[in-house]
Specification:
Elements lengths: L3 H11 L5 E4 L20 E4 L8 H12 L3 E4 L5 E2 L6 E2 L1 H12 L4 E2 L5 H11 L7 E4 L2 H10 L3 E5 L17 E3 L5 H6 L3
Parallel strand pairs: 1-2, 2-3, 3-6, 7-8, 8-9
Antiparallel strand pairs: 4-5
Length: about 190
């Protein structure tokens, strides 16, 4: 499984493990083992799910680091999330605020950015035509996968909203539940 934090850590390793201030909580920090941490003079400020520390002091510290030359990485670009039940700000909201305040353009790693999908393909050792991306968000899961030429299945559970199907981006398959996935896989070539 490739998560936004594991993909970001792999991206940083591909860069040679530069010094980073990783704004992230919980088990996602384990992904960054071996990458030098520096909250005073980092080469990158990395913003992830840092719920309890998205406060005035930490965000201003990030802004000052960016003003002094650090680059900005957003683990993912989604602005809002409701996976914990209620609508709440997501990582992309905080990153965009820092982009606006610092004048920097962030490097986004997680879906819909190509790097997360390319990393997944590398791990699967499959050709694009052999892969079906299954997700519950059109703007990230489906859009990102289609940009790489992957076939897509949208599951109408989790973060799915009916209005997602009224846009220009359309999945190859729409499933009411993940249990219907086997019907597609049997016909998948």
């Amino acid at each position: 499984m490739v998560t936004a934090s594991s993909a970001t850590a792999e991206y940083l390793r591909d860069l040679g493990s530069p010094r980073c201030w990783v704004m992230l909580e919980r088990e996602g920090l384990d992904e960054f083992a071996g990458i030098p941490r520096d909250d005073q003079n980092p080469e990158y400020v990395v913003v992830g799910d840092n719920r309890s520390r998205f406060d005035f002091a930490h965000l201003n510290h990030a802004l000052r680091l960016l003003a002094h030359g650090a680059n900005l990485i957003g683990m993912q670009a989604e602005l809002v999330d409701s996976s914990l039940g209620e609508l709440e700000l997501n990582v992309g909201s905080w990153v965009r605020m820092l982009e606006q305040a610092s004048g920097q353009t962030a490097i986004y790693i997680g879906k819909p950015a190509a790097f997360a999908f390319e990393l997944s393909l590398r791990g699967l050792k499959c050709e694009q035509g052999q892969v079906l991306m299954v997700g519950d968000r059109v703007a990230t899961d489906i859009a990102g996968a289609q940009r790489l030429g992957l076939r897509t299945a949208l599951v109408c559970t989790g973060e799915f909203r009916v209005e997602d199907l009224s846009g220009i981006i359309q999945p190859d398959y729409v499933l009411e539940s993940v249990s219907k996935l086997m019907d597609i896989i049997h016909g998948f070539a």
